[in-house]
Amino acid sequence: MAYKFRFAIVSDLHIALPHTIWQHPSRFHWVEVSIHALESVLEHLTQLELDFLLIPGDLTQHGEAENHSWLSERLSKLPFPVYVVPGNHDVPVLRADSQSISFRDFPYYYRKFGYNQPEQSYYICELMPTVKLIGLNSNSFDYEGKLLGRLDQHQLEWLKGVLANTGDDLVLVMVHHNVIEHLPNQSQHPMVQNYILQNASELLQVLARHGVKLIFTGHLHVQDVAQSHGIYEITTGSLVSYPHPYRILEFHQDNYGREWLQFLSYRVESLPEFPNFQHSSREWMRDRSLPFLVRFLSLPPFNLSPLQAEELAPSFKDFWATVACGDALLDYPEFSTHLRQCFQRYGAISSSGIPTLIDNHSTLLLSNL
């Protein structure tokens, strides 16, 4: 029988109560607007007939207990189910310190939001008959206590076991770190490789083997849709970074057994203190982008000298904001062919040179039975 459901995605909330905010002059995260931005989104979402809401990690500024408690309480008041997974900012330390909760504490704050077995940092739950959600934990620690973006082997074995028992059910997967590359050479580039799982290829093979078609991620603060192994990964930008996006999606299976996912993207357009919020936010990002751009231009594929990078960086101050919006069409005709081609690789252009604008609004055919 044909079926459909409707849900939303809001990612990388970085919730920070005012008295918990710590200053960092170069951060892109505009955490000062986190609560107002979330309330703006929830006001919209509660007017819709949603079946559930997904939040793929970085729920808090930096794992503060007060921020986790506030968010858990706020989400419990919504008229639809909510499911979360931890991001690197939610569990930055293995053991609790003066600022952050411990890694093992996280599920206990979110027992109503997927973690009905809080002794475990990942879960599977039934969204509705024949539809399952798997929430994965992409945070692990090495022997020195350094946080890594990686699925540990025990979790991978658990995942293989639960997928083997899902039968013909539709399985959605949510995890914080990217599994498929959303930027050129993402898994190797020193500035963005930490945004993709270290063992992404292994996870991707497991999911493909069991017919998973959809992964929902965050972390990168970019609106993007990527595909590999017959799987679509939809990553959603941050609520505290330009352009402050969120998504509303509808999945349906038609009478011929074909599965479709349609989605629309929205932005927080204004806030009480910032009636021209989008402009203010873009300026916030532009003003903090120069150190990022200087380093970016000095690395492959650009390979500019430090002096060249410093000279050219101001000309590209809008680059990352444009990429973050999704569906970017990048061209800088005033620069060399090499520079133009390097930047164009970060745009929404297929290998055949044709624009593929699917990052914000699209209808994807997931199967054609």
Description:
This is Calcineurin-like phosphoesterase domain-containing protein. Keywords: Hydrolase, Iron, Metal-binding. Belongs to the cyclic nucleotide phosphodiesterase class-III family. GO terms for molecular function: hydrolase activity; metal ion binding. Residues 5-222 form the Calcineurin-like phosphoesterase domain. Helix content is 25%, strand content 20%. By secondary structure, it is α/β, with parallel strands linked by helices. It folds into 2 domains: 3-267, Purple Acid Phosphatase, chain A, domain 2; 277-344, no CATH class. A 6-stranded mixed beta sheet has the order 3-2-1-12-13-14, with no helix packed on it. It has a 6-stranded mixed beta sheet with strand order 4-5-8-9-11-10, covered by helices on one side. Helix 7 crosses helix 8.
Task: Describe the structure in brief.
25% of the residues lie in helices and 20% in strands. It has 369 residues and is of the alpha/beta class. It has a six-stranded mixed sheet, with no helix packed on it. It has a six-stranded mixed sheet with strand order 4-5-8-9-11-10, with helices on one face.
Key phrases:
369 residues; alpha/beta; Purple Acid Phosphatase, chain A, domain 2; 2 domains; six-stranded mixed β-sheet; globular
How is the biggest beta sheet arranged? 6 strands, mixed
Instruction: Identify the CATH architecture of the largest domain.
Output: 4-Layer Sandwich
Strand order of the largest sheet: 3-2-1-12-13-14
CATH top level assignment of the largest domain = Alpha Beta
Percent range for β-strand residues: 15-25%
Mean pLDDT: 95
Number of helices: 10
Write down how many β-strands occur, each being a DSSP E stretch of 2 or more residues.
Answer: 14
Determine the CATH topology of the largest domain.
Purple Acid Phosphatase, chain A, domain 2
Helix content estimate: 10-25%
Number of domains: 2
CATH superfamily of the largest domain, please? Metallo-dependent phosphatases
The rounded distance between the terminal residues' Cα atoms is: 14 Å
Radius of gyration: 20 Å
GO molecular function: hydrolase activity; metal ion binding
Keywords: Hydrolase, Iron, Metal-binding
Family: Belongs to the cyclic nucleotide phosphodiesterase class-III family.
InterPro entries: Calcineurin-like_PHP, CNP_phosphodiesterase-III, Metallo-depent_PP-like, Pesterase_cyn
